[in-house]
Amino acid sequence: xxxxxxxxxxxxxxxxxxxxxxxxxLIGKTWQCALGIDEGGVSGKGSGESVYKKDGTFSAKAxxxxxxxxxxxxxxxxxxxxxxxxxxxxxxxxTFSAKSKEAPEIAQSMEELMKVSIKESEEFGxxxxxxxxxxxxxxxxxxxTADVDFGAKTIECKAK
Length: 160
What we know:
Layout: H1 2-16, E1 30-39, E2 42-52, E3 57-68, E4 72-85, E5 88-99, H2 104-123, E6 129-137, E7 141-148, E8 151-159
């Protein structure tokens, strides 16, 4: 009987914990995040900022200094729309640009790939969406995880 009680309690806690997030906690702040990558022969560190507006739009920028396989700095800006679906933050990219003085070919290639992806998505009625799982959200802290090319990454951001 105790085992059944604890199983039911665990299920109820799981259901209660599945509430939607309060999107007002995201809005109107500049979320500053530390960024880093060290996998597959690619290494770099940097920072990024994202702003989520009440009208459902977002803007983001990042600067990453790569040390492997080549030393260069990459600056990226992005904008689009956003929404919450449970614990999923869904960003739809509408504009994207990348710049690098030391590696302009990498920035240009990245920019061209994103533009083609955005254009194809629009033509076929599908958006270029990023699905980000929010694992922690408060007035001044945002913790997310997202599947990226090099595996799932957890990113912690602080409100500015």
